[in-house]
Amino acid sequence: MKNYLYILAVLTCTTACSGDSSEGSSNPVDPITGVKVQIETEIVTRSSATAKKVYANGDEMNVWAKTYGATTADDIVKNIKAVFNGGTWTLTPDVYLEASKVKNAFIYASYPYAADNSNTANNINIDVTKQTDILYSGSYVPVTVNTYTAKLKMKHALSLATFNIVKDGYSGEGRLQKLTLYGDSIYTKGVMKVDKGKVSGLEKGEVSSVFDKTITTSGWEQDLPRMWVIPLPFNTKATKAYLKTVIDGKEYVSMVPEVEMKIGYQYVFHLVLTRNGLEFIPDQTTSIALEEEADQMQPLNGHGILKLTHEGIGSFLSLYLLGDNVFGTVKWGDESQETYTDGLSHEYATTSQHPIMYETWNSIGFELRNLKDVKIIDISQYE
Predict the structure, then answer these.
(1) Which are the contacts of 338, defined by CB distance < 8 A and separation ≥ 6?
(2) Measured between alpha carbons, how far is 34 from 43 in angstroms, rounded to an integer?
(3) From its phi and psi, is residue 138 left (phi > 0), alpha (psi between -120 and 50) or beta?
(4) Element holding 253 (H helix, E strand)
(5) Cα(20)–Cα(100) distance, rounded to whole angstroms?
(6) 185 HSE (CA, 13 A, CB side)
(7) How far apart are CA 54 and CA 40, in angstroms?
(8) 340-377 residue pLDDT tens
(9) CA-CA distance, 271 to 280, in Å (whole number)?
(10) Is 72 exposed, middle or buried, given 0-12, 13-18 or 19+ CB atoms closer than 10 A?
(11) What is the 8-class DSSP label of residue 235?
């Protein structure tokens, strides 16, 4: 069920000040004959504890009261801060409506509050390194002297990258300690338009979170590790992104499978941990609205290990794995490894022996397109 929180913020006015001050001001309406704008808020979510469900004492929001229904319209009152305490919102400064003067207002809001966002509803600064759920009100909510309660439905502006890991043949404890996303699709800072919730990335970087969870052979069904990310332009169909994972003190790097994120969604990535490494399961990536929470790992099929011994210098064209939704890891025998993709090649700097290992799932066969400098083919662990 959705968690609804309705909060009444009663506005009082003690002085009638000019509406032109950038430091916060009351609109020039008689507090005796005018009516006070009221606000009710609903956070639209049924998701995990990571996504915000209810407000807590001390929570703050930016609020904008516009003269007409556009984020570019003039402010009736500038620099409004809403503070939640004891079940009510207090807005400073106040907003009044009066039939003979200010008849209408168009209300927007965003959470959490930031002083540098007070002057604009179109370029709200976002910093996902803080790993804070960003909420926005969406399209304006009109209020009048007769219907002066703005019912704001607060929605999630970011996406949740969620990870479920299963171990298969891994003999360690499997303690997940840290996740880090980086690459051309990963932005740490951006700007948001409060009416659309659209966050556009401005600055690339790494997004990290620390964890303390034990990986099992069946994966997790609740309380999955996750990170808030800027959804635009998170598109690994066009650019690359990588997940750096620390498990039992060891670091693994895996390429994120193809995904194009949308705002207000969580994307559940499934990975498998073996004694040879950590790899995404591409065909098990799912996207669900932030109302959802539970997850369940699907069984893995067609696990196999292929080994080649290469002895040569220069470029080596990888073998081709047959099957649907084939995925896996290639260890090149020179201390480098990467996610398997069709057409993969590797450059060797020396003519020494290179023990190449393919760990794969869903493969039903393979084709070796280049036998040059291949000395040994071992299929004893490929079934």
Answers:
(1) 255, 329, 330, 332, 344
(2) 29
(3) left
(4) strand 250-255
(5) 20
(6) 24
(7) 13
(8) 888 889 999 988 899 999 988 888 888 887 788 899 99
(9) 4
(10) exposed
(11) B
